[in-house]
């Protein structure tokens, strides 16, 4: 079976049965990259293996990391699953509409799921560029973690089948809705490169007084959502960081009054 190059990321999973069931459905649907962020259970224990059945090799190969940014290292695209409609400034999409965006050739991507008891927090959601919510009955809208992963893995698998049947490209309607309009995917900045920029931006904005410590988090969330939607290239992120370095130089060396220092800032 041909495997889909999408990481399934579980943030702080608490139930070994859920982790095992996730491994099984990943095997069913041709995915093999499972990443566990700070798991709150034994993902290699008997209960997990009992549910994984022939997907035990997915459990054995699963990567365990301490933080979500570590799980997304080198990824260029990430979609988070959530039911939080009021705390996001970007719209929630259905899995069928959004997930094909993760499958473009040459792109390293991830699909993120939150803990069973709370879902993804705002601090975790800021690491994604798009957000999906699985439509379900209003009488009982909450899905079990393994069920939610199964629905999304199925949609990913169906998209790969459509891609294969159309000669290696996604259907025209899917491509027009989900492809990045900016540049070739091979040049897209990775999420860890973007994270470095966000940390740099926050530090500079604090220095110049645009941000205040008590409001920095909420303001930075808006900057993250803005730039994540744009899927900038590596060159564009480097340009933005160059602006920040020039601002830092001006803060340090350019006097507020009197003659301006004509020395040039160090280029890097």
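Q: What amino acid sequence fits the structure above?
A:
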């Amino acid at each position: 079976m041909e495997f889909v190059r999408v990481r399934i990321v579980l943030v702080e999973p608490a139930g070994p049965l859920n982790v095992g069931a996730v491994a099984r459905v990943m095997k069913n649907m041709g995915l093999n990259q499972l990443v566990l962020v700070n798991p709150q259970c034994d993902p290699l224990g008997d209960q997990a293996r009992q549910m994984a059945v022939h997907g035990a090799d997915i459990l054995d190969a699963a990567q365990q990391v301490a933080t979500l940014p570590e799980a997304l290292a080198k990824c260029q695209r990430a979609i988070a699953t959530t039911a939080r409609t009021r705390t996001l400034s970007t719209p929630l999409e259905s899995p069928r509409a959004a997930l094909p965006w993760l499958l473009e050739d040459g792109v390293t991507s991830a699909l993120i799921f939150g803990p069973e008891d709370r879902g993804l927090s705002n601090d975790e959601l800021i690491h994604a560029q798009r957000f999906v919510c699985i439509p379900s009955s209003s009488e009982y809208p909450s899905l079990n973690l393994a069920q939610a992963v199964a629905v999304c893995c199925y949609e990913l698998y169906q998209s790969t089948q459509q891609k294969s049947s159309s000669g290696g490209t996604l259907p025209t309607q899917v491509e027009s809705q989900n492809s990045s309009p900016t540049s070739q995917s091979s040049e897209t900045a990775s999420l860890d490169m973007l994270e470095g920029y966000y940390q740099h931006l926050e530090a500079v904005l604090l220095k110049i007084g645009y941000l205040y410590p008590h409001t920095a988090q909420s303001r930075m969330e808006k900057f993250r959502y803005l730039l994540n939607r744009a899927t900038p290239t590596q060159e564009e992120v480097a340009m933005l960081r160059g602006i920040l370095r020039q601002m830092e130089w001006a803060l340090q060396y350019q006097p507020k009054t009197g003659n301006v220092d004509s020395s040039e800032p160090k280029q890097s």
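Q: And what stands out in the fold?
A: Residues 171-186 have pLDDT under 50 and may be disordered.
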